[in-house]
Write a structure and sequence with these properties.
The protein has about 500 residues and is of the alpha/beta class. The chain has helices spanning about 5-25, 30-35, 35-40, 55-60, 60-70, 140-150, 170-175, 195-210, 225-230, 245-255, 260-280, 285-295, 300-325, 340, 345-350, 350-355, 370-380, 390-405, 415, 420-435, 460-470, 490-504, and strands at about 45-50, 75-85, 115, 155-160, 175-180, 185-190, 215-220, 330-335, 360-365, 440-445, 475-480. The strands form 2 sheets. The chain has an 8-stranded parallel beta barrel, surrounded by 7 helices. Strands 5-6 form a two-stranded antiparallel sheet. β5 and β6 (about 185-190) form a beta hairpin. The longest helix has 27 residues, at about 300-325. The two termini are about 25 Å apart. Bound molecules: zinc ion (ZN). Zinc ion binds near residues 189, 191, 244 and 249.
Length: about 500
């Protein structure tokens, strides 16, 4: 187990090791039959898993549903219906080892992404983004294929929709963001009416055309301040590429009383600061003081960042309104990205209670295994600019205190150690305390999320401990993440074992 993990996690580990030796002796079907009462009790919580279309195509719909029910006690499928990204769609990420199921061949050349259901044109009349059908599996409509079979088993099905695109999509150019230096970016402007109308159209199409249970919406994009500093987990520092300075943003800024030219000037100053910091040119007053000075002398920097958040949350509100307009009983959930775990500046821009007022459930990312390398990356990034005067190990310990992390590994060990199950429990409790019962909290559990060569790979014991930690912390359920096509079966079974043990 992780060298720096807490007493809690060590105890969990010992318990889980004993439990797993029993579990591994049982076939999945025997496991399900052996514990029918516990399975029924487990069903009172939402036990979800994220699955891309390719898994059902490769492994069969009935077979996959069978396996997920019997091994993992899953009662809800979060089916990736819209994304151009490999985090939620496609087989295993190229270059990573395949899990022990599915087709053992990379789809690098055939993966495209888009809408894996059949778009119904009448819903898309108010957007330029009309042609998004995923060509990966010809005429296959993944909702048509999966929904009736899941329903007949009493399973719920949610559409996972993710704001990740490819720039070759027809109409993309006209809605692309504009960066600090006037270049078109690979992301879409959330203030562009075509973009807002697209998301409304998409979720309306899903909810009107299919008997789904609702939508889980993913948007992991950060505002310009975090992007300038690389202050997320998987980002390079791109202070010259911050967005967005398009005409729609300009109009939104005017409506909020913000001057776009002054915002641009502020981000140029920030870009200068970041680029000098990266080459070690220490300002005479030090890095942090200079950073803070840039902020206070250019208040539009924060205002522009807040404006991005406003635009992002406006789309969340649009999605919710569109789904509820079809039927108020349909459920809407939002994926709360990993940076929410690591970055106190990001945390300050989100109130769980506010998010809860817009959603029926929040999928709070608590990916602990890959969390180690991601958190280390975050510390390296902020430690090379704003906090460059602070030794990075000290910066990590300081940040741990700000985040209410327990005894996690030191920076040099963090990628290999991952974060502990105690981190999963703490972040789950923080979310539950924050939402004040206004929505459900479903922690997203890391089940074999790909990591670097020397970084932690999730063992079944890790998966068991993380699921158990979330459920014991009081979560309303869990969502096994990121996608079935990257999970090993022993980990899937370990998740189910934890669910059943916690319900027993
Ligand atoms: Zn814009």
């Amino acid at each position: 187990m992780k060298s720096g993990s807490s007493v809690f996690s060590r105890r969990e580990f010992l318990k889980s090791t004993a439990a797993l030796s029993v579990a591994s002796a049982l076939e999945p079907s025997a496991l399900a039959e052996a514990a029918p009462a516990a399975t029924a009790a487990a069903a009172s919580k939402l036990i979800g898993i994220q699955v891309g279309a390719v898994s059902f195509v490769d492994e069969g719909v009935e077979q996959t549903l069978d396996l997920l029910q019997s091994r993992a006690a899953v009662n809800t499928i979060f089916l990736t219906t819209f994304s151009y990204g490999r985090g939620l769609a496609g087989r295993q990420v190229p270059g990573q080892p395949f899990p022990d199921h599915g087709v053992q061949e990379s789809d690098e050349k055939t993966f495209h992404g888009g809408n894996y259901a059949k778009p119904h044109p009448q819903f898309y009349s108010h957007t330029a983004l009309k042609q998004t059908r995923a060509p990966d599996f010809g005429e296959l409509d993944i909702l048509e294929a999966v929904l009736p079979k899941a329903r007949s088993r009493g399973m719920k099905v949610f559409c996972s929709c993710e704001d990740v695109w490819r720039s070759s999509v027809p109409g993309f150019e006209s809605v692309a963001e504009v960066d600090l230096n006037g270049r078109r970016a690979g992301s879409q402007c959330l203030f562009n009416p075509d973009v807002r109308n697209f998301w409304t159209a998409l979720v309306t199409d899903y909810c009107r055309s299919y008997d789904v249970d609702g939508v889980l919406f993913f948007n992991e994009r950060n505002g310009p301040l975090l992007n300038a500093l690389g202050a997320s987990h998987a980002q390079s520092i791109a202070s010259g590429r911050v967005t967005c300075f398009c005409e729609h943003h300009g109009a939104a800024a005017r409506a909020h009383g913000i001057d776009m030219d002054r915002a641009r000037a502020g981000y140029r100053k920030l870009d200068e600061f970041v680029q000098q910091a990266l080459t070690g040119q220490r300002p005479s007053d030090g890095y942090f003081v200079e950073f803070w000075r840039v902020l206070v002398e250019n208040p539009e920097i924060l205002a522009w960042d807040r404006l991005f958040d406003f635009g992002k949350h406006q789309v969340l509100a649009d999605v919710r309104a569109a789904v509820k307009a079809v039927r108020p009983g349909l459920q809407v959930g939002f994926h709360i990205e990993h940076v929410n775990s690591f970055n106190p500046i990001f945390r300050a821009t989100r109130r769980y209670e506010d998010l809860a007022s817009k959603a029926d459930f929040l999928k709070v990312v608590v990916y602990n295994n890959c969390g180690g390398e991601r958190y280390a990356h975050f510390i390296q990034n902020v430690g090379s600019t704003v906090f460059r005067d602070v030794p990075k190990e000290e910066l990590l310990r300081f940040n741990n205190h700000l985040l209410n992390y327990g005894d996690e590994a030191a920076l040099s060990d963090l990628p290999e150690a991952g974060l502990s199950p105690d981190y999963v429990a703490r972040e789950t409790k923080r979310a539950l305390a924050g939402v004040h019962g206004k929505c459900k909290v479903l922690p997203g559990i890391d089940v074999g999320i790909p990591t670097g060569q020397n970084s932690r790979k999730a063992t079944p014991e890790d998966t068991y401990a993380a699921v158990a930690a979330a459920l014991k912390a009081g979560a309303d359920g869990v969502i096994l993440s990121r996608k079935y096509s990257e999970m090993r079966l022993a980990n899937v079974s370990a998740a189910g074992k934890a669910v059943r043990d916690c319900a027993a």
